[in-house]
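Board notes (copied after class):
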Amino acid sequence: MRVTRHRSRWRALRRLFGGVATALVLAGGAAQAAEDSDPELVALLDLLHEQTTIATQTRMNADYVPGMVTVLHGEDMRVRGLATVRDALGQVAGFHVTVDNAGDARAIVRGIGATLDATNFKILLDGVAVNRPTDGSADWLLRLPLSQVERIEVIRGPGSAIYGGFAFSGVINVLTRGGDAVAGGVGSHGLRRGELRLALGAGNGASLTLGAGAWRIGDSGLVTNPDNFAGAGLGYSPAPVYDSEHGRYLLATLNASGYRLQLRHAVLTRGGGYGRVAALPPGLEPRLERVLGVALDKDWLLDDTLTLSGSVGLLQTDLEQATLMPLPAGAGPPGLPTARGIEVYRRTGSADRAVSGQLALRWMAHERHQVFLGIERVHSEVTGSFASLTERGGPTRVLPPDQAPVLSGSSRTLTSLTLQDQIRLAETVEMTAGLRHDHYDDWGGRSSPRLAAVWHPADHHILKLQYSEAFRPPSLEEFRPGPNTFPGVTLTGRLDDERIRSLEAAYIFRQADRRARLTVYRTQVRDLIEFFINPGDPPVWRNRGDIETHGVELEWVQRLGRKLQWWANLAYVEAEDHLDADERLLGAVDWLATLGASWRQTGRLTHAVSLKHVGEQEGWELATRVAQRERFDAYTTVDYALTLAEPYDLEGFEIRAGIRNLTDQHYDSVATPGQFPEGLAQGQREFWLRGEYRF
């Protein structure tokens, strides 16, 4: 059986590479045609100016930086009808963005990420980290509307050699948008949005940019599949999915005398989703997330070759998880209230604070040689934590501190040293070597190396090769949970830090009006930290130790004349878990693809159609009362969006409208943890309308 499976996949890979080879031959033929095209059109459609600092900490063109960097332009995402940062990330080759049982956003990247309790990404807002110190999450930022976003820079693969921290599977940097505008929108499920952008001051004096907004949306009307208790006639499933949410945010940046001061504030409230352990009854408390961040930075030009950068930051977050039902009435061993028919609800939360400081030195040793040296120190502390139990119809009882999800007062200090050396060996070859050492005062230290090369042998052609490593110790929540959260149960045991090694190669073909990129990679993961519930047993954090993934990603963007643009990407991954019964990694999706086109019908009217295909997803192999679904079916969704600029000659006014999931495709995805054997029900048609006035 296994031999047959591998042969079929090898045939699939051969077909894919054959198609890629054909596409590249066509690209070469198209290249000559492009050279003879209208020079004015080529200049108008130039795609060569994506500048990013994310991969090297020095400004370079995104295609020339070492590593695999994708830049998502906010305007392109808005034309496609996408609404949030989370939606945009689903356009990156190899990214599958979904949700877990509690409704938290989950990014499965190159097959890895379904079972992680902490995020596997370093998430930045305008270059400043926003991951919670306690668990690494930043759910609010993934729900930030794209109307506030200029672009999103994404590194696929380990980023610890530059960013450390949670940069395990990659780095996401969201860059905010400027300008003056007011906007509003409505949509399905009672969606309402209001937004404001202001840019005050200009020239050499002080300037202030503001972005603010709020949104509200009701429950989607989805219904859960049966949970693990439904077969015994217990609990509430099938039950409504409680995925309503409302939030507000304020983003402010003050620039004066070379200093930049950033303020970030957000509040997000949303329902408990499907239910972390079991389907939920109505009326339970929602999830509440509050964030306040302040950062100050400045660059000093010491001489023509030397620049010193400094920054300090403060991040405070407060997260109260949605109330959950650990066991329905009638379940559990004798002695528990639930076994006596009493329904009990549990609610947990934590607050934390991180104080950071960083110094970085950039030295242009030679026109072909750049050196980066950085030192960073971050002190993180859990400033509060609680757990409570409430019997149905009874009072709420606050549990002792040793039963909270993380011990209040837990802290750690991270000291990091980064060294990177970029040298151009010839006009067409550049090498980058990087090494970062992270030392945690409560864990110890480890170094993360990176070695990369970029070669452009001819016009329009670039080759890249990179080897990189990353590691992540257990988060504070994973490392220091309340020891009596589940009396008599050790939640963490002996956890090791998780480690990843990645080897990647890429070929890029680029011209003024088209770009193609082919990436192949191989990744090894050891001791992946995951949150696991074996139905009927208490949850634990554990290391999952022997994972390998390898795959290929193809991306293409092209403009055809002045009015038509199309884009596509295709990703295939073979994700193996050698400790799993069928050696397939839970949650991995073998094939991912996007295809779309935008057509400017007139100078004011633009149409966009997008197709997204998600292949089969690997499910659980667990012994439960109801058999777990081992594979989830592939599905395809279609979106349509329309943009109308300056209707009735109203200067600065713009209307966008569209339909998401045009065919009303319903589908299921793997539940994490595995409390819903048939998966999480998803997929609904949605209508939306948005207007913006720029002044």
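Comment from the instructor: The mean pLDDT is 88. The helical segments are 2-35, 39-44, 74-79, 85-89, 139-142, 160-163, 476-479.
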